[in-house]
Amino acid sequence: MRARAAIAMLLLVGAAIVGAAIAVPGIGRMPAAKAEETAEPAAETAKPADATERAEVPMQKAVPGAGLTQAAENEYLVLYFDNDSGGIAVKDKATGAVFRSNPPDALEDPKASDETKQELMSQVSLVYHVNGKEGDAAMNSYAQAMKAEQIEWGKLERGMRIRLTMGREEQRMLLPRQMTAASFERDILERIGDERRKRQTQAFYIRYSRDDLKGANGKELLAKYPILEQEDIYVLKSSVTDRDKRVLESYVKETGYTYEMMEEEYAKIGYEGDDAVFPFFKMTIDYELDGRALAVSLNAGEIEYDRETFSLVSLSLLNYFGAGRTGEDGYILLPDGSGTLIRFNNDGRKTTLLTAGKLYGPDYGLAQNPRGSIRQEFRAPVFGIKRGDSALLAVIEEGAAAAEINGVMGDINHSWNTAYATFTIRNKDWFIAENAFEQAPWILYEKNAFEGRIAMRYFFLAEEEADYVGMAKTYRQYLVDAGALRPVEAGEGTPFYLDTIGAVDTMVRKLGLPVNSKAAVTSFAEAGRMIERLTELGVRHIKLRYTGWYNGGYDHTAPYKLKVERSLGGERGLRRLAELAESVGAQLFPDADFVYVSENRAFDGFSPKRDAIRNLFQKTAYRVRLNPASLEYEGYEWVIDPGKMPDYFRRFSAAYDGLGLDAISLSTLGEGLHANYKNNNRVNRPQAERFAASVLAAAAEKYGSVMADYGNAYIYPYADHILRLPDTDSSYAIADEQVPFLQIALSGYVRYAGEPLNLASELRPAVLRAIEYGSGVYFKLNGGDGSLLKDAKLSAEFQGSPFDDWAETAADVYAEIAGALGEARGRTIENHERLAEGVYRTTFGNGRAVIVNYSDQAYLADGIRVEPLDYAVVGP
Amino acid sequence: MVPYETYVYDYEGEYAVSPDAYVPDRVLDARDMGIDSGNLQQPADLVAGEDGDIYIADTGNNRIVVLDGRFRLRREIARFVRADTGETDGFNSPAGLFFSGEGLLYVADSKNARIVVLRPDGELVRILEAPDSDVLPAGFVYEPTALGVDPAGRIYVISKSTNMGVIALNADGQFDGFVGAEKVAPKVLDLFWRLITTKEQKLRSAKNVPTEYNNITIDEIGFAYVTSSAIDARNQYNALRNRDKSSQYAPVKRLNNMGVDVLKREGAFPPAGDLVSSGRVSRFIDVALAGHGIYSTLDSTRQKIFTYDEDGNLLYVFGGYGSQKGVFRSASALAYRGGSLLVLDRDTAKLTVFRRTEYGDNIAEAIRLRKERKYNESIEAWRKVLKQNPNFEMAYAGVAQSNMRQGEYREAMKHYKLASDWENYFKAFAEYRKEVVGRIILLIPFAAVLAIWLVVRFFRYAARVNASGWRKSGRRTLWEELLYAFHVMVHPFDGFWDLKHERRGSVRAAVLIVLAVMGADIFRTLAGGYVLNPTDWRAVELADTVLTVLVPFVLWCCANWGLTTLMDGEGSLKDIFVASAYSLMPIVVISVPATVFSNALVQQEAQFLAFFSALAYGWALLLIFVGVMVTNDYTPFKICTPPSYRWSAWDLSPFCRYCS
Predict the structure, then answer these.
(1) Domain map (residue ranges) of chain B
(2) Predicted structure pTM score
(3) Which stretches does the entry tag as region Disordered (chain A) (predicted)?
(4) Higher per-residue confidence, B571 vs A684
(5) C-alpha angle B461/B462/B468, rounded to 5°?
(6) Does B35 touch chain A (CB under 8 A)?
(7) I need a labelling partner for A516 at 20 to 30 A (CA). Which of A266, A648, B129, B185 fits?
């Protein structure tokens, strides 16, 4: 008995050892099949398009060959319907310039293939997906609507409405699948005149006769076609492609065969009929003239189509509106970083067809496309095309969060250079399961489709205005008119932004034992000394941004509650700092993060499972950064479910109110916009934008002054200060010039600065850039020496320099920039031009102009000499 | 913008971003260079001449393009006149260029299987045809793709798909032998195969010493930097990870005139590129020399440029792939010209000019001054570097060096720690320790006497308690049970006997002892000196401790009980557990003070710790052995003898009598 127990025990021990040996390397690996459970069939619940009532408008069909028909007119513009493409055209009355939605002679483009020609002639292109099947298919309005005579238009009070049906609304196909031999020969074959077509038609059918029943599989045949007992039949081969079917259908149509005859035939044979479904998309686009602009709108939720069978994936509007022909003088403007110009491909040196960017940066809910380099993101929903002495600026008014802006170069697969927006209706994501039997990607589509309104506004610029400066100023005026920008108050000078880090995690030895604890990189008291010292050195208008001051410092828990870091000096220290700041005229902007969470503890009000965003595969999604070594993405922070942001803000601000501060920094709210694809809790990107805006609005109302990073366009109405506003573009090989589009648009209204000057790879050019762009002075400085930051292993990103090393330099730089720029109020950028290679002049609204020289040669003009790497101020 | 992040690796192999040392200045295609006759085609190499001119091998167009200092076309060399025949001749896929010390341009005219030597103005000097085939191995195809010339005029040629190393030609172009082939010690298995295979089979099997170089450049003293991209990825990665200083799997080597690799690999990791994964190791395809021993290598895997100093310390890495200015599609060659770095892209046929930044200047300056033995100025330059990049370990090492010089050992320790330079850290620590010891030298004897007195007192006290426990009847206190472990430590035979039969110990005490062992293990991780654990980031992994202490212990108890039960042992599971736990006491008693002591040791003294740890474990093992014996009523031979002999063994045993 005992011996048996002993043997059992030994076996157990042996098993444990073997088990451990096997299990240890496998820990943490999830069986690939597990993910399968969470996936649901991609079928969308049937939802009829909720067609809101629109005023009835008398509609008329396009008349091919009739050219332009006037639809509306106002003081500045005339709107036409283009009968040849089904698109539109707009004439600027002042200059007579005509902007067409489709190039006039696109069909004769020698560079373009037939398919590309159809694209060129379309005003809408879309991509859809057949539910449950692999792959996407595309449609364009010229081939699928215009040529099928499915475009109609009607006049509105200030514009017109175009209704188009893309694809085939008739769901049946006039192509009999089975017919008795007699009627097939009588009704179809006999009536096809052309011998070749007759043979072709016959070849697509198989004839079964009674003799076949005697064969080996006669029984099966009989079960399939009971009519064989009496008559021979023709059956359409199952291998016939859709394209051939369409050809065949046209032959059948010509014979005068009708649906009724086909029904009758099917009844006779006892065939139920095929259940093929054709995609069709029916939509209404409104074009309205509004002053000097054309407003275009389309409601994605009102697009009628068979939602059970198809999913709309993406849609783009007016891809070639205002496109420039290769050979003409002109460029496209993309909001890449601060703005970039790509000249028309006139010398054939450009070989990249498409330059595209997703608005507002990456969506961490989706897998990131691999990149071998870092880029700027597209932060403003604008693009433009300049062509000769006229230009067009487009602003995406609604749906920007789902948009992607594309620039297309001509002379590659057609002759036209253009820029346009594509709207993603459903995101899709794919992944290849590790160790999966099949290495095919698994693709899922977003279920919470974007069903909102898409609205765009096109401005038509001429002559002096027709360049990037004019475009930026037009955008600025648009924002001002829309109430999104408020002018800088009087008395405000050039701000000095001081960015500093509070507490970081570090190992401190206590009684010889290392303890993970918080250490102050910059304590509140040190920050106070920094402000005092800078003031002493003559720096004014200090805006102190303080990061890492609450809930654990640099690695912070969710803003569910607010606990000021003790290691920095606690709440009292913070209050004292705020008082001190006020006494010297500085302003304190403590930074709060409502987008990302870097640390998770029990009972901190955040559970990654519940409160973090998930991807389409229902796995937790992370904020990722490009590892510069492996050039692969690595995840490092959770992303808060955007739907929960307002609640976090409410809780956080309840405590923040008690601190009595008059400003807040919401750096990450201006940087990232992410959807949540978690089942039962879905928030798509446009919805996420609304949540972000509501938090920003609440913060702006409560705390007066708001600061944010990068400046995604939805923060303009709320932010007074934008730091790290891109001041370069991505320097694409294809791009010709980087321009300060964002700076021109925001100048005089929002105060901004680029990247911290002390972290620039070269200080002098960065200072000149700040002067050229009318930026504030931005430094990222910390107390103590830099070794604490190294100790804290914060080496994946630059965290700032020691204050003592930089204080004097910073003060000198401030004096220089503030001196060059003067007062902040009314300091709009009125003009920006390139005088020579590396020499630029910026003219401000306050009458002042600066000339900066980045080159290594002195610049001399009009009696002004600008030394290399120097600047000159012209005017008061 | 700069489309990449510059970074270095720290001692642990983590990347740390750094300021940019080089930023893209201009990107030029043929038209920007003023070449009207169309784009460059697959340009393979470029060199900078002494006068600042740039020579590009426009391989696909069979010409050499010469640019002036402002990157404008100076001339094209497509044809040259042969002096012997007076005929004009041209290139066929010129793939490699070298500008020799005497100011001559050497061109590896690859498809013509020859080397063309020209004056900078394009005038032919001579043509070196392929070496005579009778001196080359059979089946050898001569296709020179890269070349270098040393000050003595010896020519080193890389021929495509040669795996015998670099071909050396003497100044007249005569074959001089192969240099730089890696010597591989034959493995035992290979020798075995060689014994049993036939001659034909031996011939068929490939030679096992493939050393395939892809590029070469020669420094001012005539040593050749060669790169190789044909090393097995796993071997190359392992050599890198294991900080292998040997040249066996090195993708870049510096060969002296004898063909021996003399490249220094004194950095944290050898110069072999990215420490990312074994799947995609860096593949070096070119080297450029920046002077003062600094060299850069071009990685074709991720299109990056790695720059090392003469000791093999990594200075900065930058680059990437994409369609932006400053990253590449397929970079093919790089060269320095003054402060700028030129990189040629084969795919886009463009030349990227990088400009050195202030940060790059400071590093170059610090290294130059160090090389010129101006240490104090060098330290100043390092401080400047540190001001810009507080993550740069090499700069901390530079500063620490000055601390050492000035006798600021504590500061030096701090900086060496930041530099993760542990070897030097312990040098500084030893000095510091000397200082401290010197200060408290008078106290040491007193402290030692006090410590010894305390220990003696404790053991006397334990002995007293244990002696009185002998007579005590009834339940003992936990304290008494624990103290009994000290008795077992020194009197194992009667100790274990009483442990079992007199119930001097208990399960609760045994559990506490096992916990104490685990505690000692954790304490060692947390409080051990840098000798044990050279980092400040010490996380307590409870799972680790459980795995290394608890699980083996429990397994041992179970296995022991199972075995001894089968072999008629008399111990119950409880007895075995208690005895085994009590046996572990020496580990606690020795390891805790040893851990404390480790904080006062330098690297060379780590043997002390090894000794203590061996002592602790040896003692514990001995106790376990005795414990098993006594608990199960075994003789010492029983444990290792089959059961049939046990009676005789039992009778012979002297221990048995002692035990009972």
Answers:
(1) 7-356, 377-439, 443-659
(2) 0.84
(3) 35-55
(4) A684
(5) 90
(6) no
(7) A648
Instruction: Give the C-alpha separation, A711 to A689, whole Å.
Output: 13
Does the beta carbon of A795 lie under 8 angstroms from any beta carbon of chain B?
yes
| B614: contact with A, CB 8 A cutoff | no
Return the CATH number of the domain spanning residue range B377-439.
1.25.40.10
Q: Tokens representing A281?
A: 């998309």
Q: Shortest Cα distance from A528 to chain B (angstroms)?
A: 22
CB proximity list for A211: less than 8 A, separation 6 or greater: none
Tell me what pLDDT residue B275 has.
92
- According to the 3-state scheme, what is the secondary structure of B260-301? CECCCCCCCCCCCCCCCCCCCCCCEEEEEEEECCEEEEEECC
| CATH number belonging to the domain at B7-356, selected among 3.30.559.10, 2.120.10.30, 3.40.190.10, 3.40.50.2300 | 2.120.10.30
Using a CB-CB cut-off of 8 Å, the residues of chain B touching A5 are: 565
On chain B, the residues whose CB falls within 8 A of the CB of A804 are none
Radius of gyration of chain B (CA): 35
Classify the C-alpha dihedral A697-A699-A701-A706 as positive or negative. Answer: negative
In degrees, to the nearest 5, what angle opens at C-alpha B296 toward C-alphas A854 and B225? 145
Do the Cβ atoms of B20 and B357 come closer than 8 Å?
yes
Q: Is A503 left (phi over 0), alpha (psi -120 to 50) or beta?
A: beta
Q: What is the mean pLDDT of chain B?
A: 86
- Over residues A501-543, the pLDDT tens digits come to 999 988 777 776 777 788 899 999 999 999 999 999 999 999 9
Q: Is A8 helix (H, G, I), strand (E, B) or coil?
A: helix
Touching B: A residues 534-553, CB under 8 Å: none
Are B349 and B15 spatial neighbours (Cβ–Cβ below 8 Å)? no
Q: Are B167 and B157 contacting, i.e. CB atoms less than 8 angstroms apart?
A: yes
Chain A residue numbers with beta carbons less than 8 Å from the beta carbon of B532 are none
Q: Do B387 and A805 touch (CB under 8 A)?
A: yes
Give the rounded distance of the alpha carbon of A755 from its chain centre.
Answer: 23
* B358 touches A at CB < 8 Å: yes
Please check whether residue B597 touches A, CB under 8 A: no
Interface of A with B in 414-473 (CB under 8 A): none
pLDDT digits (tens, 9 = 90+) for A781-821: 998 777 788 777 776 777 788 899 899 999 999 999 999 98
At residue A438, the pLDDT reads: 64
pLDDT digits (tens, 9 = 90+) for B553-562: 999 998 888 8
What's the pLDDT score for residue B659? 39
CA distance B286 to chain A (A): 19
For residue A513, list chain B residues with Cβ-Cβ distance below 8 A. 526-527
* Dihedral, B194, B198, B201, B205 alpha carbons, nearest 10: 10
Strands of the A77-82 sheet, one edge to the other: A68-73, A77-82, A88-92, A98-100
Asked whether residue A24 carries a pLDDT value surpassing 80, the answer given is no
Sign of the alpha-carbon dihedral angle for A369, A374, A380, A384: negative
Cα atoms found within 13 Å of the Cα of residue B243, Cβ hemisphere only: 10
Contacts with B, A 704-763, CB within 8 Å? 728-734, 759, 761-763
CB atoms A3 and B302 under 8 Å: no
Q: Which residue type sits at A71?
A: A
| Rg, C-alpha atoms of chain A | 33
Tokens read off for A7 = 């043997």
User: How far apart are the C-alpha atoms of B201 and B195, rounded to whole Å?
Assistant: 11
- Ramachandran area for residue B152 (φ above 0: left; ψ -120 to 50: alpha; else beta): alpha
Q: Which of B281, B321, B325, B391 to mutate to test the interface with A (most CBs of A within 10 A)?
A: B391
Which has more confidence, B138 or B497?
B497
